[in-house]
Amino acid sequence: MTLGSHLTPLARSHIEQADVVFAGLSDGAVEMWLQRMHPDVRSLQPYYAEGKSRMQTYRQWVELMMTEVRAGKRVCGVFYGHPGIFAWSPHKAIEVARAEGFDAHMEPGISAEDCLYADLGIDPGRFGCQHFEASQLLFYERKIDPTGYLVLWQVGLVGDLSLKRFSTGAAYRQVLVDLLSQDYPLDHEVIIYRAATLPIQRPEIRRIALRELPAAELTTEHTVVLPPAAPLKLNLAMRERLAALDRETTMA
C-alpha cells in the first residue's frame, strides 16, 4: 500500500517487462514514481467524472487494456493496494482475456486491509472479523456478529445507488448508524482508519463514538472499524460433543 516499499520483486518485474502499463493509482505522486519504472504508463484516473457511472468507467478501463492485448502487446495493469480487492476492472480484464484465449493472471499485493491489521494491532483470528462494503450492508439483509471485529469499507460513499457520486453526506451515514445501533450502543468506539500511501505519511487513526459517525470527515479511502461489543459466548453443546469424542479416542 505504501509507495515503493510494498511492491514485490515479481510485480516490479512484470511492470518493467510490459510493453504498456495502465495505472489506477491513489494519487499523482505514485503515478510519477511508476513512470520512472516504465516509459509508457497510461493513467486510468481521467476516465472518472462527476455524474458518470463508475461502472461505465470500469468497463472503459477493461476495454482500454484489452485493446492493447488484442494488438499483441504485453500489458500490465497496476492498481494500488491489492489489485483484486474492491477492484472490478482487474478481475474482469483477466476474465475477458482468458475467454479470448490470452494468458492472464493477477499478482497479489499489500492492501489497506493488511496495513489496517498492522497499524491497529488487530489479529482477525482472535475474535473473528467481518468485512462489508458499507452500501452492501444497507442494500441487503446481512447478519452482523458484534462479538468480533466489523470492518466497513467505502463508508464515504455509503448509500449511493447511482454509482455516479464520489461521496454521500451525513444523512446517508445516519442511516448506517441507525442500522448499526441495532447491534452496538451509540457510545461504542468506532475507529476511522486510512493507510499511508507515501513513505513520509503516517496512517490516519481517529477514534469516535458511533453516534458521531455522521458528522465525521470521510473519503472513499477511509475505512471504519468497530471493535467487538460483546464477549464470545461458549457453545456448551459443541464443547460437550467434542469432549465426548476426546473420551472415545482416549478409550480406543
Automatic annotation (TrEMBL):
One of its GO terms (biological process) is methylation. Residues 6-203 form the Tetrapyrrole methylase domain. The keyword DNA damage does not apply. One of its GO terms (molecular function) is methyltransferase activity. The keyword Repressor does not apply. Pfam families: TP_methylase (PF00590). Keywords: Methyltransferase, Transferase. It comes from the Bacteria. This is Uroporphyrin-III C/tetrapyrrole (Corrin/porphyrin) methyltransferase. It comes from Rhodanobacter fulvus Jip2.
